[in-house]
Amino acid sequence: MSPVPAPGAGDRTAGAASPGAAFPAASAPDPAPGASAPASVTGSPERFRQVFGDWTPQAVVFDCDGLLLDTESVWQLAQDAVVAAHGARLRREDDAALHGSTIEDAAAILAERSDSSSEALLADLHSAFDRELAGGIRLLPGAREIIVAAGARVPLGCASNSWLESLQDKLHLGGLREHFAVLEASDTVERPKPAPDMYAAAARALGVRPGQALALEDSGTGARAARDAGLRLIAVPAPGHPAPAADLVLDSLTDPDLAAWVATW
């Protein structure tokens, strides 16, 4: 793994200033040459209007793992292998703490449940995750469609508790990297999720105030970060996980009413 960027050195739009500076508004990307037209919208935006009123976002920030890409299953395989190799004895409450955590926090939790050091566990988690990721990655249902639809109207960012290099790799593997003007990761801000730093930085880099941006999240860790940063929030919890507090909770990104609402922006 190459050296991680210094905090604040996120993969933002070209010419972006440092965190805290004023950013010019980023424009939504032009459709790729030869791209197919969006599918016709069959849902209704009324459910969203009941929640958001006339408000529509000027930018959208997506989580990645478990929302856009099925990296949760990849991570679970890597984590299970490391747990077994180190004889870690996880407790029931560890599931919630591990879901949406940084890899550093995961290593610290496993160190508390084993006789291994967090440094050794961190190195093994990196290796195991990279090994599992090499087998390919699956887009979650509706991810590409909603990104294309939203990206045709407003600029997009992605905020992930992955380290930046890993986030870039995953988005490239999933064929989504080109859609995002801004990336924020655990090593581009001082404090990762659940702290609000990442979402606040993404909004700044996209040229909007937090209250003008919409976040989409699947985990309670990420939802807390988005809420505390001041973004409006749609939660799409992973199956088997509780729904975090949000303006609106959806079962899936394939919800036709979501597409209908995006079409009104």
Largest sheet: 6 strands, parallel
Please tell me how large the radius of gyration is: 18 Å
Mean pLDDT score, rounded? 84
Shape: elongated
Count every beta strand, where a strand is a DSSP E run of 2 or more residues.
6
Order of strands in the sheet with the most strands? 3-2-1-4-5-6
Q: Show unreliable segments.
A: 1-38
Task: Please report the number of helical segments.
Answer: 10
Describe it for me?
The protein has a 6-stranded parallel beta sheet, with helices on both faces. The longest helix is centred in the first third of the chain and has 16 residues, at 71-86. β2, α7 and β3 form a beta-alpha-beta unit. α2 (71-86) packs across α5 (118-133) and α4 (103-112) crosses α5 (118-133). It is elongated and about 55 Å long. The chain has helices at 46-52, 71-86, 94-98, 103-112, 118-133, 143-151, 164-173, 197-205, 220-229, 256-262, and strands at 59-62, 156-159, 182-184, 213-217, 232-235, 248-249. The protein is α/β, with parallel strands linked by helices and 265 residues long.
Short description:
By secondary structure, the chain is an alpha/beta fold.
Secondary structure layout plus pairing:
Layout: H1 46-52, E1 59-62, H2 71-86, H3 94-98, H4 103-112, H5 118-133, H6 143-151, E2 156-159, H7 164-173, E3 182-184, H8 197-205, E4 213-217, H9 220-229, E5 232-235, E6 248-249, H10 256-262
Parallel strand pairs: 1-2, 1-4, 2-3, 4-5, 5-6
Helix pairs in contact: 2-5, 4-5
